[in-house]
Design brief:
With about 325 residues, this protein is an all-alpha fold. The protein has a domain of about 190 residues: Orthogonal Bundle (MetI-like fold), CATH 1.10.3720. Helices cover about 75% and strands about 0% of the residues. The two termini are about 15 Å apart. About 30% of the residues are buried. The C terminus is likely disordered.
């Protein structure tokens, strides 16, 4: 049964990747001619036709699509139209910076959002609960670009404690990681609180209390493991978003990651680079959600058998 469950989920992941790659390919091809951006305004029609033929843009769309897949299956993501460099090498050169930023933001979110959500659930209805939820709504509602600019004005220009741009030291990481992780920490706190409150009302929690289990044991040994499924769900969704959502944050703080590269590539219609970045982001989100689905199957056998008592997998 587990092998069948794994096969179905893997097939869905592969189908999702095919749809994403196809959609990105078609949309980029119909969005405009790269020669309009990459060539001078006074370039002759002969020059434009030469570069269209060189880049394969003069062929029918279906022919370009088949050629792209043929190259993609061999690990060839194409050549940057602007820099004449392999697109995948350009992406991999920037990926470590984005992974560093996203990983730090994720760690910050877990360190802040998870404990606050647990505390708010345990003392629900208290002033602590109201303060945590108010802060969470504020953090979730604050746009990244506004929070980033506010942090730069406060800690870089006014107090001069932290640098406002670049990635030369650990100090350069603090402001962009805080900006990127704030909204996720707020969401995580809210999801954790909701999941924990649902679990804390279950009969087995009352049983654990009647047996003399300490508060810490009831929270971490009984409540948190049973509340982990919805928490892991939001984690699976947000891991991919931390990479794709870094576009705004990286632009505000001039962080040399995939976000800035994507903005520049889109501006000049560098097709191969845009496609490579979007494929990487999509693959990250699909792989993360596949792992979440597998965790469901391991944590809850009902998921593997489809429906049990009206519960849908």
């Amino acid at each position: 049964m587990m092998l069948q469950f794994l096969a179905i989920k893997s097939l869905r992941a592969a189908l999702t990747m095919w749809l994403v790659i196809t959609f990105v390919f078609i949309v980029l091809r119909i969005s405009g001619d790269p020669t309009d951006i990459l060539l001078p305004d006074d370039a002759s029609d002969a020059v434009r036709d030469f570069y269209r033929a060189k880049w394969g843009l003069d062929r029918p769309l279906w022919d370009q699509y088949l050629s792209y897949w043929s190259a993609l299956l061999t690990g060839d993501f194409g050549i940057s139209l602007r820099n004449n460099l392999p697109a995948w090498e350009m992406v991999m050169d920037r990926a470590p910076k984005t992974l560093l930023l996203g990983g730090t933001a994720l760690g910050f979110s877990l360190a802040i959002g998870l404990p606050l959500g647990i505390l708010a659930a345990w003392w629900r209805g208290s002033s602590l609960d109201r303060a945590v939820m108010t802060t969470a709504v504020f953090g979730f509602s604050m746009p990244n670009f506004f929070l980033g600019i506010l942090l730069i004005l406060t800690f870089s220009l006014h107090l001069r404690w932290l640098p406002s741009s670049g990635s030369d030291s650990a100090a350069h990481l603090i402001l962009p990681a805080f900006t990127l992780g704030t909204a996720f920490a707020a969401q995580l706190a809210r999801f954790t609180r909701s999941a924990m409150i649902d679990v804390l009302t279950k009969p087995y929690m009352t049983t654990a209390k009647s047996k003399g289990a300490s508060e810490a044991r009831r929270v971490f040994a009984h409540a948190l493991p049973n509340a982990s499924v919805p928490i892991v769900t939001i984690l699976g969704l947000k891991v991919g978003e931390l990479i794709g959502g870094a576009v705004v944050t990286e632009t505000v703080f001039a962080w040399p990651g995939l976000g800035r590269l994507l903005v520049h590539a889109v501006a000049v219609r560098d097709l191969a680079v845009v496609q490579a970045i979007l494929i990487l982001i999509a693959a990250t989100m699909v792989a993360t959600n596949l792992l979440v689905d597998l965790y469901y199957g391991w944590a809850d056998p009902r998921v593997r058998v489809g429906r049990t008592k009206g519960v849908r997998a």
